[in-house]
Amino acid sequence: MTTYPEFPKNFLWGGATAANQCEGAYNVDGRGLANVDVVPIGKDRFPIIAGKKKMFDFEEGYFYPAKESIDFYHRYKEDIALFAEMGFKTYRMSIAWSRIFPKGDELEPNEAGLAFYEDVFKECRKHGIEPLVTITHFDCPMHLIKEYGGWRNRQLITFYERLCRTIFTRYKGLVQYWLTFNEINMILHAPFMGAGLYFEEGENVEQVKYQAAHHELVASALATKLAHEIDPNNKVGCMLAAGQYYPNTPKPDDVWESVKLDRENYFFIDVQARGEYPNYAKKQWARDGIEVVMTEEDLELLKKHTVDFISFSYYSSRVASADPEVNEQTAGNIFASIKNPYLDESEWGWQIDPLGLRITLNIIWDRYQKPMFIVENGLGAVDTPDENGDVADDYRIEYLREHIKAMNDAINQDGVELLGYTSWGCIDLVSASTGEMKKRYGFIYVDRDNDGNGTLKRSKKKSFDWYKQVIASNGSQL
């Protein structure tokens, strides 16, 4: 076995999930309906996620996988025990906003929801696992969408602030690592999922998206301010869907296109990490006739309350071309990209680029000089149990091994500062992009199919013991 340099002492190894993709129990203990509940599996999923097709409630003829998901709500003790057996130092999870405030605009929280997460965090602590909590992982109470129009409405800042004050106060001493919004740049690509935005006929879509983005950015700065005031030990991070754009050719037009597309994604983090809107964004808005309403107080908040660290998801790099004739698309994490002929791809067409992770880590480090945290990375694949129920997922081990090597190089050879790594979907869960269960990421197999059939029984895959060894050796044995 090849031995690699160890990761830094106290490196936070673990795994990641999201409430809407694993909890289920969508109507239990007072939880309200959220945007993430009413997105079905099937051909209408993406038009709904993109805010182009209206679905504000459950409709006949559709299957909604988030209703039950893998029932983490009732099985969290069993699942956290399995994470502990792998040696997790941290567990990235999210809070369902509508468990705490079912409608979103109440003055008082739902105690049953608060108690549930308190129990989950205590269970983590019992096993020596540090919770890393995403405040909003695409969740927006449906009441806030129907009555206020989602994040286009400035009032959502107030409701989000109330949520943050409630959870920072209740979980003081239990949680110290927080992320404000999951993949905040998804608002541009999946606006109903990212910000509860549905667009009416004739609306200026870009104007609405960037106004909503401003509201989320102000809310994020407010959350950072509150977190530090309520508990000085709190560390607050931002989160983006990352992956560097490569120019398709050395042609300067292609290089410039890659710069522009990278900026579109880093725009949010420029604000959250540096504290002000970048000039390139202001110039773009002026050209496009976009007028984002903002106050002097907003700008002061953004400037004063930047994040402590930068977290991101990484599944693949991307390719940019200025030539409209170059258009062979590959799949990706909501983002389509031009195909890179030098890379292999997953069963879902996501291109596999471990070196791209090292490149992305270096670019983000050079850009911001703030500690980083990789909070999503993994391989979605069809896992077929054998006659004994075992899953030999060597393909997943290979994928993760190569990405962990790239992280190791970025730390030990390039000098980037990385706090931790939580592989995505450490237990099989519902896919955010497709709504499928058969697109599995986990070290733990869950007996459930795309139609919701199955016993929900948990079992360890081959990758379970492999990852256990990785953590035990602090990344030196892969």
From TrEMBL:
What is annotated as the active site? 376
Keywords tagged on the record: Glycosidase, Hydrolase
- Give the matching SUPFAM superfamilies: (Trans)glycosidases
Query: What EC class does the entry list?
Result: hydrolase
* Record-level GO cellular component terms: cytosol
PROSITE patterns recorded: GLYCOSYL_HYDROL_F1_1, GLYCOSYL_HYDROL_F1_2
For whether the record's keyword set contains Cell membrane, the answer is no
GO biological process, alphabetically ordered: carbohydrate catabolic process
Q: What's the EC number here?
A: 3.2.1.86
Could you tell me which PANTHER family the record lists for this protein? 6-PHOSPHO-BETA-GLUCOSIDASE (PTHR10353:SF296), GLYCOSYL HYDROLASE (PTHR10353)
Which NCBIfam families does the record associate with it? PRK09589.1 (NF007154), PRK09593.1 (NF007158), PRK09852.1 (NF007356)
Hey, which family's this protein in? Answer: Belongs to the glycosyl hydrolase 1 family.
What protein am I looking at? Answer: 6-phospho-beta-glucosidase
**Gene name of the record:** ascB
